[in-house]
Amino acid sequence: MSAPGHRTSGLTWAIRLLWALFLAQVAASLLVDRLPYPYALGWLPVALAGLLAVVRLRRDRRVLVDQAPPAVETLPAVTGTWTAMNSPADRVPSHHTHRYAQTFAIDIVAEGPDGRPRPAFAWFWPPARRNEAFPAFGAPILAVADATVVAARDGARDHLSRGSLPGLLYLLLIESLGRTLGGFPAVFGNHVVLDLGGGTYAAYAHLRRGSVAVRPGERVAAGQQIGRCGNSGNSTEPHLHIQLMDGPDARTAHGVPFTWHGLGVPKNGARFTAPAPEQHGRPGAGEQADRPG
């Protein structure tokens, strides 16, 4: 899949021309006492450039989705009862961005084994909770197919939850900025990337510090535990972020659609129960399925 923007498009040239026009008139205003048109009109190129940038962004998003390869079927990365969040079954890109190949990514949170729900969002108190209060924290994370480990990180800390209004404001206004500047490792936290074969890679994010049980170059079997669910990186609570990509480096790869064997693609808010790997078939690594709608 070729990314939009590898060749400079007409829209991009138009945006550059408008900015050049704006800068030229700024320079001209320093050389003459008065421009031969109203001051407000001088901002018209900036407004048009902004409008064209929005049009280009919407076009590029559509291209990335339309040119995506067929969905790849894998096993689920967990067992037990979980709830889907930020699912590509409801919205693409699922996380409002194509950055770091997150176009078709999904977040899942665990529900308690006795039906007890995870802690609800608190408006003011408590401002944060310890990770142990969430059923997902420490849950086993499994290889979705027979694969080779290409990347593994295990040193990032698991921070407190951000499941309150003060915590969320801190995340959005302060922490997210720092993590954005820190790049991919700061956003994904502890993570593992697996080569599933056939040009497909699986990336797992926000794993628990000290739990990553694999190293680059190792072979893993479908259903093998590779780590535990944590709350590292850009995360509001313990959960698993998982995505498929067409390359080993999320900074340059594109997202690939997925479907889980026996489950499909859970919708936002859908609760699902993933059986143990031995209780259902094992799709071959890189096996393609019909693309989910």
Automatic annotation (TrEMBL):
InterPro entries: Cell_wall_metabolism_enzyme, Dup_hybrid_motif, M23ase_b-sheet_dom. Residues 267-293 are annotated as: Disordered. Residues 188-246 form the M23ase beta-sheet core domain. Gene3D superfamilies: Glucose Permease (Domain IIA) (2.70.70.10). Signal peptide: none annotated. The lineage of its organism: Bacteria, Bacillati, Actinomycetota, Actinomycetes, Kitasatosporales. The chain crosses the membrane at residues 12-31, 37-55. SUPFAM superfamilies: Duplicated hybrid motif (SSF51261). Keywords: Membrane, Transmembrane, Transmembrane helix. This is M23 family metallopeptidase. It holds the Pfam family Peptidase_M23. It comes from the Bacteria.
